[in-house]
Amino acid sequence: MDIRISAKTKEKLATKHGGVTGKEIRECFENREGPDLFDTRAEHLTDPRTRWFIAPTNHCRLLKIVFVPTNEGVEIKTAYEPNEEEIRIYRKYGLKP
After folding, report:
1. What secondary structure letter does DSSP report for 19?
2. What are 23-42's pLDDT values in tens digits?
3. Which helix (H) or strand (E) holds 87?
4. Is the pTM of the predicted complex or chain greater than 0.85?
């Protein structure tokens, strides 16, 4: 899978989101266990719809990965350490027993 991260997004990941790297994002895609959830908030609607999931890196750093699928793979919109509410939502709807 081709994972694309624009220069603007790389800058945001480095300066605003704790230095999240492309390597960590790839690890999260490899380590995810649940399905993608969709961002249905009006201000975040895209075509195709924005998706997200929460997964650990290989060093157990938990990240929320937000992306849009493309014909070539995925375009990363953002990635950061999730807050408790995001974790609760993903556990409820993404990691169903």
Report:
1. T
2. 999 999 999 998 999 977 77
3. helix 84-93
4. yes
pLDDT digits (tens, 9 = 90+) for 42-53: 776 677 889 999
Return the structure tokens found at 5. Answer: 């991260």
Q: Report residue 83 CA to chain centroid gap.
A: 13
Q: What angle do CA 45, 47, 52 make, to 5 degrees?
A: 60
Contact 20, 63 (CB under 8 A): yes
Number of domains in the chain: 1
Q: In what order do the strands lie in the sheet with 2-4?
A: 2-4, 73-80, 62-69, 51-56, 37-38
CA dist 66 → 2, 12, 88, 97 (Å): 15, 13, 16, 23
